[in-house]
TrEMBL record:
Cross-referenced InterPro entries: Acylphosphatase-like_dom_sf, BLUF_domain
Matches recorded under SUPFAM superfamilies: Acylphosphatase/BLUF domain-like
A Pfam match: BLUF
Source species taxonomy: Bacteria, Pseudomonadati, Pseudomonadota, Betaproteobacteria, Burkholderiales
BLUF domain span: 3-94
Source domain of life: Bacteria
Name of the protein in question: BLUF domain-containing protein
Length: 137
């Protein structure tokens, strides 16, 4: 079965605690393992950037549910394309909280989220393409 990668950006309606982020991750992990979805969620300063990988129809359905989640607003898809392979094959959902400033690749990831928020490119690449490239390296 072919897979797609969907990357979206959204704004939290309020500051999210580390405990709440862990709960979001745990729920996503439990749900995603049953629907063949992998990915990673990034949180920084009230913004979510998430990569979802899986069958295109599954991602469409999942994103429709995500859009209805009242914990965030202004959700928009930055990237939704077929992929030859998964960037996050080991994780039903990885989570990186950039607010704790302990993440590997912290500066690169903050730049990606800032570029996505401002609807600008990083060099000649979209923020989503840059994000996927960071983790393929």
């Amino acid at each position: 079965m072919s897979i797609n990668q969907l990357v979206y950006l959204s704004q939290s309606v309020r500051k999210v605690s580390a405990e709440e982020l862990r709960a979001i991750q745990a729920t996503a992990q439990a749900n995603n393992q049953h629907i063949d979805v992998t990915g990673s969620l990034f949180y920084n300063g009230g913004w979510f950037l998430q990569v979802l990988e899986g069958p295109a129809p599954t991602l469409a359905s999942l994103y429709a549910r995500i859009e209805q989640d009242p914990r965030h607003k202004h959700s928009r898809v930055l990237y939704n394309e077929p992929a030859k392979f998964r960037t996050f094959p080991r994780w039903t959902m990885n989570m990186i909280n950039l607010d704790d400033r302990q993440a590997d690749k912290y500066d690169e990831l903050v730049e990606v989220i800032d570029a996505a928020r401002g609807d600008r490119k990083i060099g000649a690449a979209s923020p989503a393409a840059t994000l996927l490239k960071i983790f393929r390296a």
